[in-house]
């Protein structure tokens, strides 16, 4: 009985981790989406992707972070700012998978 329970538990854990792994691109790369090239271009000008993709922030927190990066010299129009913040909040928000 224990062996069956242990095998079932292990199988469930592997299935869950495989599903989570499938949602996270290799090497911490940004998740797919129409805004990915814009985010990738602007964020990786100074950071490795994992420095961004490892974070989990609300839209407000991402907005503050992007605003801070603009203060450091990132160049984004108002529309690009909204796109970047929306993409980050959707893909790297508190409830998004790691």
From TrEMBL:
<dbReference type="GO" id="GO:0020037">
    <property type="term" value="F:heme binding"/>
</dbReference>
<dbReference type="GO" id="GO:0009055">
    <property type="term" value="F:electron transfer activity"/>
</dbReference>
<feature type="signal peptide">
    <location>
        <begin position="1"/>
        <end position="22"/>
    </location>
</feature>
<dbReference type="InterPro" id="IPR036909">
    <property type="entry name" value="Cyt_c-like_dom_sf"/>
</dbReference>
<keyword id="KW-0732">Signal</keyword>
<protein>
    <submittedName>
        <fullName>Cytochrome c</fullName>
    </submittedName>
</protein>
<feature type="domain" description="Quinohemoprotein amine dehydrogenase alpha subunit haem binding">
    <location>
        <begin position="37"/>
        <end position="93"/>
    </location>
</feature>
<dbReference type="Pfam" id="PF09098">
    <property type="entry name" value="Dehyd-heme_bind"/>
</dbReference>
<dbReference type="InterPro" id="IPR015182">
    <property type="entry name" value="QH-AmDH_asu_heme-bd_dom"/>
</dbReference>
């Amino acid at each position: 009985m224990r062996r069956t329970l242990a095998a079932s538990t292990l199988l469930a854990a592997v299935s869950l981790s495989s599903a989570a792994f499938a949602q996270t691109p290799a090497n911490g790369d940004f998740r797919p989406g129409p805004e990915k090239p814009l985010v990738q271009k602007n964020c990786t000008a100074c950071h490795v992707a994992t420095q961004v993709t490892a974070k989990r922030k609300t839209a407000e927190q991402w907005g503050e972070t992007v605003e801070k990066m603009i203060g450091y010299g990132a160049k984004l129009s108002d529309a690009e700012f909204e796109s970047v913040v929306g993409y980050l909040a959707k893909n790297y928000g508190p409830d998004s998978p790691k």
